[in-house]
Amino acid sequence: MMVAIIIYGPPGSGKGTQANLLARSLNLIHFDTGKYLESVVHDPKNLNNKKIQKERAFFDSGIILTPEFVTEVVKNKVTKLAKSEFGVVFSGSPRTLYEANGLMPTLECIYGKKNIIPIILKIKDATAVKRNSARLVCKLCESTIIKTLLSNKFNHKMCPVCGADLYKRTLDNPKVIKIRLKEYRERTEPVFDMLIKRGYKLNEIDGEKKPEDVFRVLKNKVLDLLHN
Ligand SMILES: [Zn+2]
Q: What pLDDT score does 158 carry?
């Protein structure tokens, strides 16, 4: 299925989790731009690369990476992914107007406008702060665990899925979360107007509910749009 689904939402809206579930359920590739960029800027091979050092410092402080850098890296990867002939789910990307201007024509060329579906997960700022401060990530299977959802008896050092170590991302300390929220409002939300101007309909979904409930709504929405 050659579709491109773009899931937006502030940090903590669950866009990564939802993109994962959707990819698995519809047999698509989940392209997590944030994780991909994290792997590029934290790749030991790039340790001495001046340009990437600069991007890593941005990344760790919650500031959006240089748009030119992101656009180039993402465009290359997307073009490669398209050769697999699987559709793709993006979480949180293209993230700035600059990136969107660079990436949307490429996506439209590969998938066609009518097969590109933008989704926005809505949550309150307070929810974003609460969820992010409690987030732990597994080093091995990359499961995301929200501490407050676990019982006190649970060992917070071990992944309940695979048993590997959990870690707190540099991105998830309260100061950084505030910056990420501000970046989302000021630099990502303008992309929505640009998409509307390009002829897209934005599909808003309530992200405050439990992940499985959000997913049910999301999947039905996408299937609905694909069958029309
Ligand atoms: Zn794990």
A: 86
